[in-house]
Amino acid sequence: MRVELDEPKCVASGQCVMAAPEVFDQRDDDGVAILLDEHPVSELHDGVREAAAICPAAAIRLVEG
Amino acid sequence: MSDTLSCPVSGAAESLPEYPLQRAAECPLAPAPAVQELRAAKPITKVRIWNGSTPWLVTRHADQRTLLTDPRVSDDDLDPGFPYVNAHRAEIAPVTPRLITNTDAPEHTRLRRTVNGPFVVKRIEKARPAIQKIVDDLIDTMLDGPNPVDLLTALALPVPSLVIAELLGVPYKDHDFFQSSSSLVLDSTAPPEKAREVSGALSAYLDNLLGEKMTDPGEDVLSEMGGRVKAGEMTRTEAVHMGVAMLIAGHETTATMISLGTLALLQHPDQLAVVRETEDPKVIANAVDEVLRYLSIVQTGVRRVVKEDIEIGGVVIRAGEGIIFDLHAANWDPEAFPEADRLDVRRPARTHQAFGYGPHQCLGQNLARLELQVVYGTLYRRIPTLRLAAGIEELEFDHTGTTYGVHSLPVAW
Ligand code: HEM
Ligand code: SF4
Predict the structure, then answer these.
(1) What pLDDT is stored for residue B2 in this prediction?
(2) Which of B145, B219, B390, B404 is paired with B44 by a 20 to 30 Å CA distance?
(3) Contacts of residue B333, Cβ cutoff 8 Å, sequence gap at least 6
């Protein structure tokens, strides 16, 4: 799985950090998401899928496989 | 088993329904029956609102997500097609500065990034011990006081106002003033002139405090906004507006989730038992999201106007037409949540839209979740015999405010 973050769209809601803290973080000053791991190991995939599903800005794209 | 089998049918799908739609008295926690029928029969349909205009009503979870992330769907409340909640909102729109609540990308993105800092998940989480202390102290006072008591005044209203006071950096000595004035501003039974006067006093208070924080900053939101004012990133007026907005937007909503949430859990003792007996913070966190979904308290929904024609679900929404997104309808959509009418604190609930969806999704959601996790994780454990001290049919529900709540919630133990 490859994770893509469309940063300009991000509204800094932090939902991805709640769902997959190993893969996403937020900048301290404005909350914009930081992608920590573009190729997360399979144990983290459920959390990443949840992050993509709940991201209110539809800013997270997953390329499965 | 379904909670709403006995809720009546309205026939709303037959005509041009008046919105908001009426809930059924015998099912006070369920969405209006008509809204559920519309979701099944006409998921994107026109309704008539208070000013005679006929915006679209969107009720399905999936359609709401599609439209609320569509850049042609706008929050511009100066557009004549905007479906205002009421006459007051229509009146104040032209005199309200452009804020996160009435702008679109890219301006919205820029403004929102200036106020997001304090709501970053990891920063909010640091407030947990302070919130725990506020909740513990209020419950101590409640247990020492009269029994039965109104849970609204004893706990539900003070929690969010004390938490926001702490977060903004309001000194402890002013907490009483802050709490009583913020309750008055929200009190729908208070005379409007009184509410205006108190709200003016609150703004003046925050403006003064902001000035102090600009010369002598601390580790709080007002100090941070003061820094941005000095750096020219926002004006002083915007900072004060934002402080008041945080107070107003987060007070009644969070309070309602404490009072109505407690009512919902008391009505479902098996679910309350799960919350009371768990040692796992993840179970509490999920229960909070499930109660948010189940109650979907923002009953006026999310309002938008369309800037270019949009084709969706076999209809064309024309430029200049308004849209109302009924959040309760989406959160009870069986395609998104099987057996949506059941309160089930263990179901996957995170995709609910009680905080809206899209770029305007609630700024304070992570703070609200944290407050509710502390309250739900503490109250029922410390007072295991908590019960309603009135019949549910005696409770008075607020059908007209932004949030659907109870005017008071008598509880005993
Ligand atoms: C359980 C409690 C809460 C609920 C159910 C709730 C619900 C909502 C909803 C549905 C929206 C979306 C409005 C729209 O899209 O037009 C919203 C936006 C907002 N909320 Fe909350 N809210 C809660 C708590 C809070 C708290 C604690 C704060 C602040 C400290 C807050 C501040 C805001 C602000 C500033 C916005 C506007 C965001 C924007 O337009 O970009 N809310 N809220
Ligand atoms: S969930 Fe989406 S909008 Fe929120 S911080 Fe993550 S990427 Fe940004």
Answers:
(1) 47
(2) B404
(3) B39, B59, B60, B61, B62, B340
Torsion of CA A33, A34, A37, A43, to 10 degrees: -30
Distance from B116 to chain A by nearest Cα, in Å?
5
Q: Do B119 and A14 touch (CB under 8 A)?
A: yes
Ligand nearest to the CA of B297: 1
Q: How many domains does chain B have?
A: 1
Tell whether B66 is within 8 A of chain A (Cβ): no
Domain assignment present for residue B3? The answer is no
Cβ–ligand 1 contact at B38 (below 6 Å): no
Q: Which domains does chain A have, with CATH numbers?
A: 2-63 (3.30.70.20)
Shortest CA gap A10–chain B (Å): 8
Whether residue B312 is contained in a domain is answered as yes
Query: Is B6 part of a structural domain of the chain?
Result: no
Tokens of A50: 């949840």
Report which protein residue has its CA nearest ligand 2's atom 2. A55
Nearest CA to ligand 1 atom 15: B360
Cα–Cα nearest to B246, from B196, B292, B182? B182
Q: Is A11 in Cβ contact with B112 (below 8 Å)?
A: yes
Per-residue pLDDT at A26: 96
Give the pLDDT of residue B199. 82
Structure tokens at B228: 């941005």
Distance of CA B408 from the midpoint of ligand 2 (Å): 37
* CB neighbour class for B281 (10 Å; exposed up to 12, middle 13-18, buried from 19): exposed
What CATH number is given to the structural domain containing B178? 1.10.630.10
In tens, the pLDDT along B2-24 reads 454 567 777 666 679 999 999 99
* Cis ω for the linkage preceding B20 (within 30 of 0): yes
Domain limits for position B50: 12-412
Q: What is the mean pLDDT of residues B363-369?
A: 96
Closest C-alpha residue for ligand 1 atom 9: B355
Any atom of ligand 1 within 6 Å of the Cβ of B151: no
Nearest CA-CA partner of B286 in B343, B206, B328: B343
Sheet of strand B149-150: strand arrangement? B149-150, B410-412, B387-388
Helix and strand counts by DSSP (H, E) for chain B:
16, 12
Q: Are A7 and A24 in contact (CB under 8 A)?
A: no
Note the ligand closest to the C-alpha atom of B354. Answer: 1
Is the Cβ pair A12, B361 closer than 8 Å? no
